[in-house]
Amino acid sequence: MIDHDYHTHSLYSDGRLLRQMVAAASEAGLSGVGISDHCIVSERDAMIEVRNDIGFTFDATYERRRSAIERLRENYDIEIYDAVEVDYDPRDEAAIETFLGEADFQYAIGSVHNLENVNVHYESYFAEKSESERAALVDEYFEKVVALIDSELFEIAAHLDLVERNPALRGFATESHYRQVAEALERSRTATELNAGRVLDDYGEYHPSPTFLDVLQEYDVPITVGTDSHTPEALTDRVAHLAEWFEERAIEPTELAV
User: Is the Cβ–Cβ distance between 6 and 109 less than 8 Å?
Assistant: First the structure.
């Protein structure tokens, strides 16, 4: 039974209207939905440029969204969580900690999206690199994921093997990477998620991959639900798919204490 979706986006980052996302979650039969818009908090010039290019400036607008959520709570019989998804890099920890402390969200999701200040989805950039360079970048990616978990800044570590979405970086992840992440989660308060962000389209898989998930279950890591939806239609479709997945595997999704 899927009761909560902790990972969705609205027009305050790269999703659809807030009201549309909440309505879709309610129609899908959920008891709670987290609106976790993207945010880049960094004082590094390269990432400030990235942030401004793609418009992930939620740190400047979260108070407006919070007011909108409060109004929606009066009209919908569903818990609406005021959350955020923050791009993580160890060099930005101080800035992230300050922002999260000031903003006081109900929970925060941490994600590693960038290598060499380039989004890991950009196939053409990484395809130009040699095999050894790409393998080294995947090593770096998982090192950052472990650092994210160890930072204890976030309630959820999102899409742990995001590099698998990029054909140029796919296939370099190893069981050793998976165990490093699992061990970090085992010693942390941080949970992870079954992320359905590409399960019904081009990538066609969940995050983490089945092999990775087997390792996480070996360490008894808590797993929440995250559709990673940017549209109402995606939320509806992914909730149904996730519910079937959890039922087939007899796994009970973890609910956050929010």
Answer: yes
